[in-house]
Task: inverse folding
């Protein structure tokens, strides 16, 4: 079973002619996530506390320092409804959220999460993923709690340490071509039942994406007419995993319809699109849609690691008419492990 570990977007900008247009910028917001430490380091016994376990809180507000942002002077309507009404996406670890025993995965407890906003608005979450629209002014102290379904008369034989994750994402203009990820946090939950179990050293992974300056103000016509390619960013994967039987790959896909869509730039104000292809120099051929590249194995450090660059080619290979204006596109990089 493949498991998505993290998602990072690389923004690519092309300008056919000078135009001023502003999408939502994550720097317009200030976010804060805080997790109750007793729920993340195997120090909490949930044997007697199964209902409404406090996991932590999350906050978001308008950045107080907006006047120093380079876009502020150009945007008279910066804080309209699209920027205030945000979408929160909560993604659990499985289709039915659970706490699983780290030594015996067949042992698990069903769980539900409660998100309380402003002290009154709350919602129980039992499916794998839920989405809710909330105004920014409401998120002063959004509390997240977990309730664990008891095992009735079963008590002994279920001892040990249990783990799960809950991913929280905050989006502006969610579900549109202008969708922007404001921030993301992964609640890693580790508690024990009756007595602590043997917890192996956790595998820690890190995925760093660096957009190059070449990803902005691309000469569209020049690149199209020459049939050239352009390297737009790099990806560095590191880990403390020294198990040769592990498996990692990097999935590279378009943000809109990652599984079946094509890489394409979308115009700021009309339906014009410019299709292009993406590849990893020296590792893959140009691809119009999603593709994966395997991490080759343990690096010279003895751990799983990799470095790749991301390049674009075949810009506007469908020869669409090039409308003046600004076009944008996102490339999603996912670390996948078995």
Result:
């Amino acid at each position: 079973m493949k498991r998505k570990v993290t998602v990072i977007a690389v923004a690519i900008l092309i300008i056919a002619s000078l135009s001023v247009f502003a999408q939502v910028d994550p720097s317009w917001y200030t976010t804060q996530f805080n997790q109750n430490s007793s729920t993340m380091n195997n120090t909490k016994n949930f044997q007697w506390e199964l209902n409404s376990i406090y996991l932590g809180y999350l906050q978001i507000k308008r950045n107080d320092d907006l006047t120093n942002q380079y876009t502020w002077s150009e945007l008279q309507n910066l804080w309209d409804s699209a920027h205030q009404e945000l979408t929160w996406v909560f993604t659990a670890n499985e289709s039915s959220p659970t706490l699983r025993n780290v030594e015996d995965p067949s042992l698990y407890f069903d769980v539900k999460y409660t998100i309380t906003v402003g002290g009154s608005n709350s919602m129980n979450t039992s499916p794998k993923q839920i989405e809710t629209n909330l105004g920014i002014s409401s998120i002063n102290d959004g509390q997240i709690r977990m309730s664990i379904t008891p095992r009735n008369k079963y008590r002994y034989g279920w001892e040990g340490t249990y783990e799960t994750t809950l991913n929280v994402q905050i989006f502006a203009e969610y579900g549109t071509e202008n969708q922007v990820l404001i921030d993301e946090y992964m609640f890693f939950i580790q508690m024990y039942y009756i007595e602590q179990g043997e917890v192996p050293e956790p595998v820690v992974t890190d995925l760093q994406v660096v957009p190059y300056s070449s990803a902005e103000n691309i000469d569209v016509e020049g690149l199209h007419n020459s049939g050239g390619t352009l390297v737009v960013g790099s990806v560095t994967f590191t880990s403390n995993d020294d198990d040769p039987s592990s498996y990692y790959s990097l999935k590279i896909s378009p943000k809109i319809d990652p599984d079946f869509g094509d890489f394409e730039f979308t115009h700021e104000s009309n339906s014009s699109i410019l299709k292009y292809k993406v590849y990893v120099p020296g590792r893959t051929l140009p691809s119009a849609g999603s593709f994966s590249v395997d991490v080759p194995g343990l690096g010279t450090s003895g751990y799983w690691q990799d470095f790749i660059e991301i390049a674009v080619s075949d810009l506007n290979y469908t020869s669409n008419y090039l409308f003046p204006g600004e076009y944008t596109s996102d490339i999603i990089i996912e670390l996948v492990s078995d």
Notes: The chain has a mean pLDDT of 78. The two ends are 6 Å apart (CA to CA). DSSP finds two helices and 20 strands in the chain.
